[in-house]
Design goal:
Layout lengths: L13 H14 L6 E3 L12 H14 L10 E7 L6 E7 L4 H10 L2 E8 L2 E6 L6
Length: 130
């Protein structure tokens, strides 16, 4: 199954991304795989607006404000195919590959190959039989 690199990062919210991958896992044929790619963010400067916003989001979510956007969430203006010439778009930038792999693990997947930084092959984790 091909899950276009970058599309995964346009799904808002970690829980929703994990649920989406879980559903895709359930649709796979035996021995199936998914080609997808998280969008890895560039390292942030020590004093940047994005770093400050992410810090406020972490503190707010720790304090129980779950409706805050997650650290790594960004909104940007992009071209649209509908009536408006431009509209705001959402994207989640993962801090590093470990953060993205944790979501995939929580969905029941394991990264088996990295074709490059933007294109990974993931397969369902083998079930451990007791």
């Amino acid at each position: 199954m091909y899950f276009s690199p970058g599309i995964y990062a346009h799904i808002p919210g970690r829980d929703r991304r994990v649920r989406t991958l879980t559903r895709l896992r359930d649709l796979l044929a035996p021995n199936g795989l998914i080609v997808l790619g998280p969008v890895l963010g560039q390292p942030l400067r020590p004093l940047s607006r994005a770093r400050l916003v992410d810090a406020v989001r972490r503190v707010g979510r720790w304090a129980g404000f779950r409706r805050l956007a997650e650290p790594g969430d960004r909104f940007y203006r992009g071209h649209a195919l509908d009536r408006a010439e431009t509209s705001y778009r959402y994207i989640h930038y993962f801090r590093d590959s470990a953060e993205a792999e944790a979501e995939m693990r929580d969905s029941g997947f394991v990264v088996t190959e990295r074709l490059n930084t933007a294109c990974w092959i993931v397969r369902p984790r083998p079930l451990i039989s007791a």
